Amino acid sequence: xxxxxxxxxxxxxxxxxxxxxxxxxxxxxxxxxxxxxxxxxxxxxxxxxxxxxxxxxxxxxxxxxxxxxxxxxxxxxxxxxxxxxxxxxxxxxxxxxxxxxxxxxxxxxxxxxxxxxxxxxxxxxxxxxxxxxxxxxxxxxxxxxxxxxxxxxxxxxxxxxxxxxxxxxxxxxxxxxxxxxxxxxxxxxxxxxxxxxxxxxxxxxxxxxxxxxxxxxxxxxxxxxxxxxxxxxxxxxxxxxxxxxxxxxxxxxxxxxxxxxxxxxxxxxxxxxxxxxxxxxxxxxxxxxxxxxxxxxxxxxxxxxxxxxxxxxxxxxxxxxxxxxxxxxxxxxxxxxxxxxxxxxxxxx
Length: 349
Known about the structure:
single chain, alpha/beta, Ribosomal Protein S8, Chain: A, domain 1, six-stranded parallel β-sheet, 11 helices, four-stranded antiparallel β-sheet
C-alpha cells in the first residue's frame, strides 16, 4: 500500500507495523540522513519513531500516525535536496515543527485567512511554503507562528511581534524590510531601538555619540549584514537609504515610503511609543518587536509596548503576533531557559 503520493522514481510500502521508504539517489539520501545520521535522529525524536537505514531504504517503526507524519517530512526533505536547496539543522527542525507541507499558522489576532495581496517576493509555493528573498540569502519561517508573522509583515502596514528572545521576531522583520526595499516597494529602511541599558551603564564609555550608541544597535547591524552584501550596506547607509538610529532620533519626523522596525519596544515609555506610532507616513510600514518580560525601564515607569497592546486591541488593520518558547529557533536550551523563568514568574534571560 502506498502511504502518500510519490514520484515514479520513489516507492513506499506500509505494513502493519512499519513503513518502508525507498529513495533512488543515494547521494541525496546521504545528505538527507545528515552527518552521522544526525537528521534521522532528529526525526526519530521529533515524531516518536524509530528509523532504520537499509541501503537506499528507510524503514520507519511507530504508530500509524507517527509513521505517516515522519514519512511525509522525510519525503519533503528529499524533495528539498532534489531542488538543490540546503537541508541544514534549522530546515530539519522546521519540518518537524510545521510538518511536511507547512502547518497552518496558529490563530493570530488581526489576521485573516486571505493570502497576502502584496509583495511579489513573498512566494507562495505549492503546500503553502513561504520564502523571503534577500540579496544574500533566502529566509524561511521555521515555525507555524513565524509563518503567520511573515504573512502579516507583507500584508499589513502595522504589525506587533511579541515574545521571548530567540523567536526570530526582529530578524524576520528586518528580512521583510530588505525584501520590500529590493523590490522597490519602499524607498528606505529604518531600524530603531530605545537607548535603555539592560542593567549596564554605557554613558561613561569614551568615544563619540555614535560609538556609544553602536552597542545598542549592534543586533540590527548584524541582521542587515546577513541579508545585504558587505560592501553594499555602508553605501546604502551613506546614501540615507538604510538608517539605524536610536528611537529619540525619530521625534519630529514623518517617515514616508519606508519600512520601519522598532526593536526592544518593551523599553519604550508610553509617550515614546505614541510618538513612534504617529511617525508613520504615506507608503510606510512598521514592525514593532519586543518581549514584555524583559523590561529595563526604571521601576514604576510603565512600558509603552504593554500600554500599546492594551490601547490598540481590536483596532482594525493592525496585526498582533505572539510567540512562545515553542518558537525559539536558537539552541534548544534557550527554550528550556525561557520556560523555567516563566514558571518562576520572572523575566526571560
